[in-house]
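Provenance

Sequences were taken from public entries as deposited. Structures were produced by running a predictor on each sequence independently, with no templates supplied. The record for DUF3450 domain-containing protein from Pseudidiomarina terrestris is shown for reference.
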Amino acid sequence: MKPCFARTLVLAGIFASTSAVAQDQALEPVVDAANEINQAARSSQLTVDKIADTTQDRVQQFKQINRQIQGLEVYVQQLQKQIDFQQQEKAELNDSIDEVSVVERQITPLMLRMIDSLDTFVNLDVPFLSAEREGRIAGLHELMDRADVDVSEKFRRVMEAYQIEADYGRTIEAYNGEMTISGQPQDVEFLRIGRTVLIYKTRDGKQMGVWNQLDREWQQLDSSYATDVQEALRIARKQLAPDLLMLPVFTQTAQAGD
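Predicted structure for DUF3450 domain-containing protein:
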C-alpha cells in the first residue's frame, strides 16, 4: 500500500507544477496589456501636460494681444480726436484764407491812398531832407507794383514810413546839404527842430536863412542869431547839452527876426 501513496504524491506535484506554468502563461498577455495601458496612460498624460502648457501659453498670448488691442483702440480714439481737431482747424484756416483775400482786396487801395496822402503831406511840409523823403515815397510806389512782395510786408513798409514822418516832429537834427544862394549852389548846414524851425547856415557863417512855412519861402536871418544857431547845431550833433536858445519861429502873426 505504501508505494502506491508515494506515486500519487509525485503525480500531484507534477500536476501542480504544470498548472502553475499554465497559469503564468495565461497571465502574461494580461500583464503585457496592463503594461501597454500604463505606457499609453503615461504618454497620454505627457500629451495632456503639453497641451495644458500650450493652452496656458496661448491664454497668456491672448491676454497680451487683447491688452495691445485695447491700447490701440485708445490710441486710435485719440488720433481720431486729433484728426477731428485738425479738420476743424483746416476749415477755420480756409475761412481765414477767404477773409484774407477779401482784406487784401480792400487793403491795397487803402495803402495806395495812404502813400498818396503821405506824398501830398511831404510836398506841403517844411522842406527838410527832401531827397530822402521823396525817395522813400517813390520806393513805396515801386514796392506796391511788385508781385513778389507780400501784402503784409507792403503794409509794414507803409506804416514804417508814417512812423518816420511822425518821429520828425519830435526830434532835433543837424545835417549837411546844398542850397542855391544868390544863384550859386553852396554847401550849408541845416538845423531842424521838429517841424517848427528849419535854418541853414553857410560854411563861413556869413549867410543864414530860415524857412517861412506861412509864405513857403526862405528868408534871410539876422546875424544876431548866429551864436544861438551855432549852439543849436552843436546840440543837435550831441556836442553840447540841451539848453534854452533864442531862435525864430513863424506863426500867423510873427515874422522872421521878431
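Confidence is low (pLDDT under 50) at residues 253-258.
The radius of gyration is 58 Å.
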